[in-house]
Specification:
Layout (H helix, E strand, L loop, with lengths): L1 H30 L2 E7 L18 H9 L1 E3 L9 H10 L3 H4 L15 H7 L3 E6 L12 E5 L9 E4 L2 E4 L4 H14 L7 E6 L14 H5 L18 H5 L4 H4 L10 H7 L8 H10 L3 H21 L5 H36 L6 E7 L18 H4 L3 E4 L8 E3 L8 H8 L14 H5 L8 E6 L11 E6 L2 E6 L5 E6 L17 H4 L1
Parallel strand pairs: 1-7, 1-8, 2-10, 3-4, 3-7
Antiparallel strand pairs: 2-9, 4-5, 5-6, 8-9, 11-12, 12-13, 13-14
Amino acid sequence: MKAALKKITWTLIVFCTWQSTKGQSNLSKKQRPNIVYIMSDDHGYQAISAYGYGLNKTPHIDRLAKEGILFTRATVTNSLCAPSRAVLLTGKHSFVNGKVDNEARFNWNQDNFAKQLQQHGYQTALIGKIHMDGLPQGFDHSAVLIDQGEYYNPNFIIDGTKKELKGYVTDLTTDMAIDWIKNRDPEKPFCLLYHQKAPHREWLPALRHLSTYTGMTIPEPKTLFDNYTNRGTAARTAEMNILKHMNWAGDNKIPPTLMDELGIKEYLSWDKAAFNNNLGRMTPAERASWDSVYNPIMEAFKKNYASMNDKELMRWRYQRYMQDYLGTVAAVDDGVGRMLDFLKANGLDEHTIIVYTSDQGFYLGEHGWFDKRFMYEESLRTPLLVRYPAEIPAGTVSDALVQNLDFAPTLLDYAGVAAPKDMQGKSFRKLASGKEKKWRDVIYYTYYEYPSIHMVKRHYGIRTNRYKLIHFYYDTDEWELYDLQKDPEELNNVYNDPGYADTKR
């Protein structure tokens, strides 16, 4: 009896192992797609022309919308650089994965979707910005920037070794991403996380884009001069105003010597240092090209500064901000174009999932702000475009409330790998292909980094298809409710409006 049972047991083990190996082998060779996940930093959806805001043109990113799906209401769970990346990797909220703000340590020993792909035969690489200490785990190769990274002649940690590379960071990141695909094992599927630093502050465009964007006049948002009437304390006390809180040297590129000459004081103690450090990384030839464009701008500012009132200064600073911001976006778009062309030229475009997104949204002058952090729409929402011709119909548009929490389980789903049970997101694979119509009707958000730079108060909240409820806490206790259908710009807090009593319940 025992011998028979033992024989049956071993037969079942061999059969199950064969079935598993057989299924994995077939999937690996015939069905498992490659993955190129492109994440920029602080790229507001408003600055992608496919979203229709008219600020700039991003023809290569737009190709993903034309040939795949564009999500109009993709959101993040925590609008901050490093926490967003931790959510991407783990498929877990910040309060579960431990990376609640930019200062908290990230535990690389915990599971992530790249580790799962590795275990199931994928080659993996992380190239660009990750903004988390420690050698990345889950990747056969990594080439990551230190902290925020530098725009010109940046330092990378390449498989644990620090190296300074010559050139412009966006182009270098694209070069390394393409080179890694070229040198991969062609017999195995691959997953590449291709993360750009741009367009993160302090917005230094590539030299080739300087003249184009500094010569543009950018349309102003309707709420550029918002006075925060009928909003709470958090909006009124945040330190993100372009006129009051943006750095003059580091952000607007006014040389420290000109600041001193005009009597302009630093808002942040590292303002002048940021200018000197960023431009100090340039070669003499790069600096000469930069100065040939920016010196005339600063000479004109010098002549006009004394006569400018606050409204005029706000408008000038907005233009300076947006010209440099959109200039850095242009190089990101160039890189996407190079990647798409490379994949097509090498016969990889039809069997590779290409995702373009950002770590969160960004304020491009709305409410007079720059930066992110708030649960208001401009920073809660993130761009998301996905191309995969094998499943996703070209030109698809979705207003589903997908989140960055869903990226890990979605990519695992495409790879034929079951998501670990502790991942909190949901695969939107069927949603993207049109096979699934129903989706979640509410998302959850948290923000913890206070008191800190920009002084955005701690808060959490939920967003449904129509409403948004936010609770600000810690050193305050205020609630805000917005009817996004009637008030898409979130100018009117209706939490205490009797007409919304039933909605609050």
